[in-house]
UniProtKB/TrEMBL annotation:
Belongs to the class-V pyridoxal-phosphate-dependent aminotransferase family. SerC subfamily. One of its GO terms (cellular component) is chloroplast stroma. Its cofactor is pyridoxal 5'-phosphate. It comes from Arachis hypogaea. Its EC number is 2.6.1.52. The lineage of its organism: Eukaryota, Viridiplantae, Streptophyta, Embryophyta, Tracheophyta. The keyword Transferase applies. GO terms for molecular function: O-phospho-L-serine:2-oxoglutarate aminotransferase activity; pyridoxal phosphate binding. It catalyses: O-phospho-L-serine + 2-oxoglutarate = 3-phosphooxypyruvate + L-glutamate; 4-(phosphooxy)-L-threonine + 2-oxoglutarate = (R)-3-hydroxy-2-oxo-4-phosphooxybutanoate + L-glutamate. This is Phosphoserine aminotransferase. HAMAP family: SerC_aminotrans_5.
């Protein structure tokens, strides 16, 4: 028996979202609902007409979207959002949204397995590494890493290149004996140290780095080799932005909400022999062994977020993999840094040129009093979230994988125009 039909073009029955007329629904409902449903139809008078046109083409920036330069949560690929939209109500004929699925059902298992498999393809992850989809953000990993990789008496080394590695170091102090072997604080976190000058501890269980400092915009272009133990990297803000030789690391971790999905998913890639030595007081949710043995399904995982990450991974594979993605990222960063460097000091990026981030571009205005105006005018032009982090001020343009070249070109054109009017 069919469900109630709207009596007017301007009336939506919320219990029957098919009336929202997504004419491009790729996976139409295959199950029939009985009429025993008890919820009452709620009618809403709408002035807008129901959308009947096809969703905008993924290759162009849709009219009603902005260029979002936020540091995270950040912009996602339009085609991924549109695919998620088309699958939201009824995932591939299952009769359910991914949000409604059992995390142990065959549908979700296929989603998480495909996500892992595509991520393995992208980063060429060796078989002796496990991939875990966790919760709690990268901040939770600041504690989980020392809890899993060392005893309270163990020494570990931290390279502090910005606020995030500093936070990681401070959290580790609760669980082991971390040492800051280099800090860029006195130079306002504008540098990455030379590896030969690093005074590594001979007995360190691991060497921790933040591969890309989201706030300060410094990025490791190569990685140090630990004297002892393994290399551990926070890749939250440059994860999947370029190829990485995973075999050089004991553990890589990243929050998803910059390059690969929504917030709520944290990815850990860990060499299997490092699993299984958690300190006794480690909460079960922070024990890698528990998550590894249960294929990230020990408890209810962030199912929808993992699904979204899976769509992003699929998209990155379709783009030709991370080599291709890196080329695009280099091009975007190059035109933005060139605009800053060619502005005769009107705009300035404080970061050492050799270690400038391809993802987060901080810059200041020579006339600092114009910064508020710059951000306001940019927003009017649909370029948003350009304000620098509250701890450093100035501006910051985050240009992750999903920021189209057109977005950076528009920003650069705006910067030139702004300079012409205010120099
Ligand atoms: N590390 C880096 C490099 C980050 O950019 C962030 C978030 N901006 C974090 C750690 C903390 O991540 P979360 O908010 O997911 O805990």
């Amino acid at each position: 028996m069919s469900m109630s039909m709207a009596t007017s073009n301007h009336t939506l029955f919320l219990h029957n979202p098919t009336n929202l007329t997504n004419t491009t629904n790729l996976f139409p409902i295959t199950t029939t609902r009985t009429a025993t449903t008890t919820f009452k139809p709620i009618s809403i008078k709408c002035t807008a007409t129901t959308r009947t046109q096809a969703p905008p083409q993924a290759s162009t920036q849709s009219q009603d979207r902005v260029f979002n330069f936020a540091a995270g949560p950040a912009t996602l690929p339009e085609n991924v959002l549109l695919k998620a939209q088309s699958e939201l109500y009824n995932w591939r004929g299952s009769g359910m949204s991914v949000m409604e699925m059992s995390h142990r059902g065959k549908e979700f298992l296929s989603i998480i397995q495909k996500a892992e498999s595509d991520l393995r393809t992208l980063l060429n992850i060796p078989s002796e590494y496990s991939v875990l989809f966790l919760q709690g953000g990268a901040t939770t990993q600041f504690a989980a890493i020392p809890l899993n990789l060392c005893t309270p008496q163990d020494t570990v080394d931290y390279v502090v290149t910005g606020s995030w590695s500093d936070k990681a170091f401070k959290e580790a102090q609760k669980y082991c004996k971390p040492k800051v072997i280099w800090s860029g604080k006195s130079e306002k976190y504008t540098k990455i140290p030379s590896f030969s000058g690093l005074n590594q501890s001979t007995d360190a269980r691991y060497l921790h780095i933040c591969a890309n400092e989201t706030i300060h915009g410094v990025e490791f272009k190569d990685y140090p080799t630990p004297k002892n133990g393994v290399l551990v990297a926070d890749m939250s803000s440059n994860f999947c932005s370029k190829p990485v030789d995973v075999s050089r690391f004991g553990l890589i971790y990243a929050g998803a909400q910059k390059n690969v999905g929504p917030s709520g998913v944290t990815i850990v890639i860990i060499r299997k022999d490092l699993i299984g030595n958690a300190q006794g007081l480690t909460p079960v949710m922070l024990d890698y062994k528990i998550h590894d043995e249960n294929n990230s399904l020990y408890n209810t995982p962030p199912c929808y977020g993992i699904y979204m990450c899976g769509l992003v991974f699929e998209d990155l594979v379709e783009q030709g993999g991370l080599k291709e993605v890196e080329k695009k990222n280099k091009k975007k960063a190059e035109i933005l840094y060139n605009a800053i460097d060619d502005s005769k000091g009107f705009f300035r990026c404080p970061v050492d040129k050799s270690v400038r981030s391809l993802m987060n571009v901080p810059f200041t205005l020579e006339k600092a009093e114009l910064e508020v105006e710059f951000i306001k005018e940019a927003a009017k032009e649909k370029m948003v979230q350009l304000k620098g982090h509250r701890s450093v001020g100035g501006m910051r343009a985050s240009i992750y994988n999903a920021m189209p070249l057109a977005g950076v070109e528009k920003l650069v054109a705006f910067m030139k125009d702004f300079q012409a009017r205010h120099a």
